[in-house]
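Before a colleague's protein record goes any further, I have to sign it off. What it holds is a sequence and that sequence's fold in token form. My question to you is simply how this chain folds and whether the tokens agree. Thanks in advance; the entry in question is below:
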Amino acid sequence: MSENNDFDFNNQTPLPDGNKPDYSYKWNGTEHNKNKKSGFNIAIITVIVLILATVVISAFMITGNINSDPNDESGNIADVSITSDPGKPDKPGGPGEGGKPDKDDKPPKNENEVPNFTPSGDSNLDLSTALTQIYANCSPSCCTVSVTYGMNTGYSIGSGFVIDAKNGYIATNHHVIEDAADIKVVFYDGKEYKAELVGSDSVTDLAVLKIEAEGLVEVELGDSNAITVGENVVAIGTPYDITLAGTMTTGIISGVKRNVDITNDAGKVIKTMTLIQTDCSINPGNSGGPLIDMAGNVIGITSLKLVDEQFEGIGFAIPMTDATEIFKKLIAGEDIGESGIASASPLIGITVTDVQNGLASLGIRPSCEYPEKGVFIVEVTVSSAAYKAGLGAYGIIVDFNGDKVENSDDLTNALAKYKAGETVQITVFQFDRSFSSGEYKTIEFKLDAAK
């Protein structure tokens, strides 16, 4: 205690000048043990009497309310309807409990059926135990996605959840299953199934798996367009290792419709995604798991976080309402097109340099006339749409979709006007093999998505 016996500071070290830190707080336990005068005893007796009187009066009032109805002059006891939640009407009846169809009432499976995902917007959660109820309701639908690669190159894990129990469809991220040789789904009760990849899209980072299993439980879907900053949410997944499968973390919606630039290993922006921001703890392995609101409905798919020692608690999820439209297209085998989730940077799939530098580096001295301004194609990626359309190496690009190209900056600026998936035309002067002649060609193709 301090020498003046007025107050002390809790576990705070004095500063060099003898003063206490500003963030210390006052704490003086002795003020709760001081002796009081006899008048204090009288006050205690008075308080006790008042409390007893209040209890008696309250009991009388409660008895009167139970045994009489103000609208019943006979004084008979009125009928009383008791519900667990008087603020909500009971659900209409129907097959199964709570008006929901029994499992036996479901139509037979259709392998080509595309489900119609719709938000539930309904919940019978008791908010006093909301978190435990959410976990109990949602965790049976969640799973670990375990991926192995060819030639014994290791394995990785992610998360997923059932979006259609009847057909065995499971949602996850594209980057979780990318380049997988084998995919396995493991539920938190230990049951595991071999999974088939139904469809996947690198730009939106979404994928749909399919398993053959009975008794699956699908999640309830929420409306991610209706969420607001400050709402409580939870994330369920498998962070770091399968021994931590079924981990739930809590947080809030920190932001909506965040435009996040995604970069590759070289630091180049490859796409921009519109995401939900949350401070739920998201770690490697959580990718593909659900972000759930307090009604127990999935409103997002956890996908990424800012990784840097300067950042903490900045994670992102794909909005579920937009994602369901992507899932339908992936299941149906359709092109994604404009998604509303992501806009990928365009990629031609070529390595270029200035014309004279390119020819000199290869020791080439053409014996024909050729354009001295443009960009020289050093290499073309064989998997690119441009290569498949006929664009080859050692040509000179002079025009990109109507924009004149005289150097690399011109090509970069022209390309920046377009998005991945758009159709463009390139005009190129193509040498023959002996560099003794050449001709101009116009090649049309769709721009690839940057990686």
